[in-house]
Amino acid sequence: MQSGGTLIRPGGPVLVVIGGLPGSGKTTLLRRILGEGVPGVVGLDSEQVTERVRRAGGSIPYGLLRPLVHGWHRWRVLRAVGGSAPVVLLTDPWTRPAWRAVVLAAARGAGRSVEVVLLDAAPGTARAGQLARDRTISARAFDRHVARWQRLLASQRDAVVLDRAAADRLSLGDLVPCPVSAPGAR
């Protein structure tokens, strides 16, 4: 891709959802893909909001910040999905049916195709990932995620399901086939 170009996806704009249990590696994958530096790609992760809030508000425990972080993050998601970015990458546990429905409806309304990639990390691995980044959720909340995750995996027919090793090899080109430079890009 030429520097300064805009990513165009044949068939129109796309939303790529990277789903998985909290701590499964979604944020790590998003950071690596955004690090490729492809223009026209917007990446959204609740950790971005957490970092902004922490910079502004000091050392408030994440448990107290969570409602603010989630509300602000969801607003950002709906704004980006309805916006003009050719590619929106979203990390989300993807375990809440009502939120999935809202995001998918917003994508349809914006004319975006949707691709779902699910990172299937074992619950123990995901819990260790939470501890490593110091963003743990309660055992009860995590158990609810695990139960919904198992139902999600059983019901998904169109999603790509990957383990952590396969996710470590993904690039933007694997998630969004055929990126090309915009005409006239330099």
List descriptors:
186 residues; alpha/beta; Rossmann fold; 8 helices; 48% helix; disordered N terminus
Number of domains: 1
Number of strands: 5
* Fourth-level CATH superfamily: P-loop containing nucleotide triphosphate hydrolases
By secondary-structure content and strand pairing, the structural class works out as alpha/beta
Mean pLDDT across residues: 85
Determine the strand fraction and express it as a percent band: 5-15%
Largest sheet data: 5 strands, parallel
Q: Please provide the ordered H/E string of secondary-structure elements.
A: EHEHHEHEHHEHH
Query: Portion of residues in helices?
Result: 40-55%
What is the alpha-carbon Rg in Å?
A: 17 Å
Uncertain residue ranges: 1-7, 180-186
The gross shape turns out to be: globular
Figure out the total of helices. 8
**How are the strands of the largest sheet arranged?**
2-3-1-4-5
Give the end-to-end Cα distance, rounded to a whole number of Å. Answer: 9 Å
CATH architecture: 3-Layer(aba) Sandwich
Q: Could you name the CATH class?
A: Alpha Beta
CATH topology group? Rossmann fold
Task: Describe the structure in your own words.
This protein is about 50% helix and about 15% strand. By secondary structure, it is of the alpha/beta class. Mean pLDDT is about 85; it is low at about 1-5 and about 180-185.
